[in-house]
């Protein structure tokens, strides 16, 4: 029990941890508002206020977040020219998203002209979508490379008489590859979910713009991020 509490404290001490918690509030309240709108208008109104407050607080909390793209490129630009190119495109899109999100937030709280909100929302969502596409492609490439590396390690240890120490090293490498694969699959799930939300801003359509689609996508993104940011055992 104490271990779980400690992990929760560590998780909530992270900027991303708080963001995923508040994002859960935001999209649960969106679904609650949709579900009770016609039957319990008062509860629906409170849920809507909770959703709006959560969304605005997330935007405020992400101030300066666009700079993380530069840091990501500086620390881990990619191991191959293809991955480096994809990383530049992905982080560029994300930086546009977070940068213009500042202006969207300011226009929605009344500091800037409210008429700017729609334009800022479009530019921010376009950058977000652009970045997510390349993040997803990069993750699939790395997942494929990991599967190939895992098969090679397994094949080599089956076909050769390895020493016990070598076998343990190979086993650790395989476990590391599998953990990385799970994390990347979580990242893909989160990015696809966020892409659906961004597309609803860029070009509203019956599927992406439906409250249930947005609510489920938001929760998938939040909980996948929760899993990725939860402290390791």
From TrEMBL:
Oligomeric form and interacting partners: Homooligomer. Interacts with ARC5 and FIS1B on peroxisomes.
Entry keywords, A to Z: Membrane, Peroxisome, Peroxisome biogenesis, Transmembrane, Transmembrane helix
One biological process term in Gene Ontology: regulation of peroxisome size
Record-linked InterPro entries: PEX11
Family: Belongs to the peroxin-11 family.
Location relative to the cell: Peroxisome membrane
This protein's record includes keyword Ribosomal protein: no
A molecular function (GO) term: identical protein binding
Glycoprotein found in the keyword field: no
Record's bilayer topology term: Multi-pass membrane protein
Described purpose of this protein according to its UniProt entry: Involved in peroxisomal proliferation. Promotes peroxisomal duplication, aggregation or elongation without fission.
Source organism per UniProt: Cinchona calisaya
Gene Ontology cellular component terms for the protein in this record: peroxisomal membrane
Origin superkingdom: Eukaryota
Name assigned to this protein: Peroxisomal membrane protein 11B
Transmembrane segments: 83-100, 120-143
